[in-house]
Fold:
Amino acid sequence: MSHGHLDHSLGLPYVLSQRNLHGLGPCRLFCPRPIRRAVETFVESAAALEEVEYRYELRGLEPGERVELGHGWSVEPFAVDHVLPSLGYHLIRSHRMLAPAYRGMPGVELARRRRAGEVIDRFEERIEVSYCGDTAAGVFDLEPRLFEARILLLECTFIGDDLESKVRRFGHLHVADLAARVGCFANEVLVLTHLSRRHRLDELRQAVEKRMANLAPRLIVFGERQGRQRREKRVS
Ligand SMILES: [Zn+2]
Ligand SMILES: [Zn+2]
Structure:
């Protein structure tokens, strides 16, 4: 959980309820440390309403407090720029690679060196997914590693010149904040979420095409594709 605003937290008890209903095992939940107690009270109230027991472990985290998930995966929270205690999260994969000096060496020779106790591997890490929750543009200075994530989920709440001044007050991103950094996004895929209900998805797509044309082919406006497929299905 990134933070306590209800558009981000209200579904949490329902996820636990559904897991319970379908007999799924316990799960781990992560949230910002300052709201851990409130999240627990919230979830436990829902469990009391349903007269069931949810199976979960809830951990409050601080930025940089990495948690190993197993099989080389880990999650690492980072600070974002919002109006409540909030975190973004990196999903990181670590894998073993042959150190460069040993690449191209015959397998028999590698096996011999390994047996002799030589360290011929090294671990490389990659941020597979970064999720920023709600944030204003301060996040780009707080956590520049998000530009390197393979998949970046970033909020983009506002479009339109009249709204640029409101953005900081509400702790959100305006499409202009992204356009100003268009050359920084090295991500394979950038997913824009959290568009204000005052705008339409195709308005955001048009703004992207106009202000960030280079980025547009790698960019998904969340909800857009499904909507388009549904429209196409109706037409056909
Ligand atoms: Zn929020
Ligand atoms: Zn929100």
